[in-house]
Amino acid sequence: MTYERRKIPMSYESRDVARAASGVLLAGALLGAALLPDAPARVSVRLTEWKVELSQGTIAPGTVRFAITNAGSIPHAFEVGGQGVEKQTAIIQPGASGTLTLDLKPGSYEVYCPVGDDSHKKLGMVARLSVVGAHSATPPGVKAIQVVGGGPVIQILPGPFPFPDSAAPVLKQFGNEREGLESQVLRGPYSNNVAPVSGTFTFTAWDKGATRDSVDGVAEFTTQDGARWKLVLDRVQTKDVPHHPRFGGVIMGLYYHGNTGVHTPLVPTINSAVALWAFGHLSRNGAVVSDNAMVHVMLLSRTRREGDFALACWDCSPNKIEELQLQILPGPGEPKFDTPGGFLFVNWEKSGSRPGVG
User: Fold this and answer.
1) Which one is predicted more confidently, 14 or 326?
2) In this predicted structure, which of 100-109, 151-160, 267-276, 290-299 has the lowest mean pLDDT?
3) DSSP letter at 269?
């Protein structure tokens, strides 16, 4: 005997119970998901000499996990400071990694390498992290500065460096460059041989990260021989060379030169509001000299004394930042300028700056 299997219709009550149970399960699933903590925001950090690079500079409030890699050649560490937070990692050896997990509220934070009583920070290993709420205005992602040269204007001419004994131990670190630098100790651009001149210099520089920095500026000055010079800045140098990093072209707040081992020690140790490396269009008495002149500019702590404008200190980093320094060399493969020493080196001794527009 066979039996026919019949479908038994579900009653309305049974359907309601099933729907209710389904709703409870769905609500439970949603509630469970809501109760699970959000995964921490992740920020990758790359430490090198002398940079701190973040994968993102703006994050939402809450838990953040910093994944740090030391891609440099010496030990570093990572510290976050601001809004009542002051936390750091242990020392991270070259090639090694570390993590730091923090709860961050809205605000601005400084992230940096604290090694050497903040000496690595002073060399440029510092960045900013912005923590903003979902409805906050987007913070500026670009640092900009406007600089205006002022005060006495002087041209620095070739001559001996006045602190050779202080520079000698640092010069030993410069390998193949040492011989060339030692020749500048006797007759180089960092001397007390100066001449009063006249001129103007204004520029705006943008520090946008490792590769997108830019500059826009004009310098016009008359040198001690009566020649009239004009320099137009419109693009930065980005290629690093040993002992002479370019920091992407523009960097704010750099502590270097002198006894730091970063860039030539034939400049006293200084702090700078801005340092930049650029290419420029240079003309003399209206005639083009170079469209590829190599330019270095610093708004730095005062290195020269009043009156005779001689170099006044080996460590000038504590001094007021007001000296604007312009150095111009011929472009690659170009002949030396028709100037003493083949270079141009002009200072504006009482200069100032203000935040620029990003």
Assistant:
1) 326
2) 100-109
3) B
Of 66, 82, 95, 339, the closest CA to residue 227 belongs to 339
In this prediction the pTM is 0.63
Pair 259, 170: CB distance under 8 Å: yes
**Quick check: 240 and 51 in contact, CB under 8 A?**
no
- Of 260, 264, 246, the residue nearest 180 (C-alpha): 264
For 224-283, the pLDDT digits (tens) are: 999 999 999 989 998 887 778 888 899 998 888 998 888 999 999 999 999 999 999 999
Element holding 25 (H helix, E strand): helix 12-35
Type of residue at 248: G
- Give the Cα separation of 264 and 298 in Å (integer): 14
Name all domains of the chain by residue range, CATH numbers in brackets: 41-138 (2.60.40.420), 144-355 (no CATH)
Integer Cα distance of 45 and 245 in angstroms: 19
DSSP conformation class of 186: H
**Largest pairwise CA distance in the chain:** 125
Other Cβ atoms less than 10 A from the Cβ of 332: the count is 8
Distance between CA atoms of residues 201 and 144, nearest Å: 17
CA distance linking residue 102 with residue 86, whole number of Å? 10
CB count in 10 Å sphere of residue 85: 15
Q: What DSSP state is assigned to residue 278? A: E
Backbone φ, ψ for residue 171 (5° rounding)? -60, -30
Per the CB < 8 A criterion, the answer to whether 170 and 182 are in contact is: no
CA dihedral 146→238→75→181, nearest 10 degrees, is -90
Structure tokens at 168: 């000698």
Contact 126, 111 (CB under 8 A): yes
**Paired strand residues for 228:** 222
Helix (H, G, I), strand (E, B) or coil at 333: coil
As a whole number, the mean pLDDT across the chain is: 84
Residue 27: left (phi > 0), alpha (psi -120 to 50), or beta? alpha
Pick the most confident of 77-86, 292-301, 349-358.
Answer: 292-301
